[in-house]
Design brief:
- By secondary structure, this protein is an alpha+beta fold.
- About 30% of the residues lie in helices and about 25% in strands.
């Protein structure tokens, strides 16, 4: 079954997320379940999703990420952070993006998520930068 696209390819917020995610070593993008998905060997981020338990509540301008375990407790206390449907049991979190987004923070979240999923070889490449 093909999922409908749930994003606008011309979305300037998506363009900023792409720039950050695809700057990571050997990162690539594919469409999964109608949404941009960033990966190396494993997925490290999704663009857009729905909160856990809120059927039909789409957050189209959001980043879904796997947090650094050391940062996870603090992130869970942040009112901007929410648990995404289907991924929350696996430790994923999400944050909405808007005009007030701190893009350095988003880069840090994507970096941590990348490090959690990328092969050691790619993490070493990232550290060598």
């Amino acid at each position: 079954m093909t999922h409908p696209l749930m994003f606008d390819d011309a979305d300037p917020v998506l363009a900023r997320v792409r720039a950050i995610a695809l700057a990571l070593p050997e990162a690539a993008e594919k469409i999964t379940h109608g949404r941009p998905t960033f990966f190396t060997v494993k997925t490290f981020a999704f663009y857009g999703g729905s909160p856990r338990g809120e059927v039909g509540d789409r957050h189209d301008q959001a980043v879904l990420f796997h947090p650094d375990p050391a940062d996870e407790p603090a992130l869970r206390q942040d009112p901007r952070i929410w648990e995404p449907s289907y991924l929350w049991p696996h430790g994923w979190l999400a944050i909405d993006l808007d005009d007030d987004t701190d893009w350095y923070e988003i880069a840090e979240l994507l970096d941590a998520s990348y490090r959690a999923s990328a092969p050691r070889r790619l993490v070493k490449l990232l550290d060598a930068r």
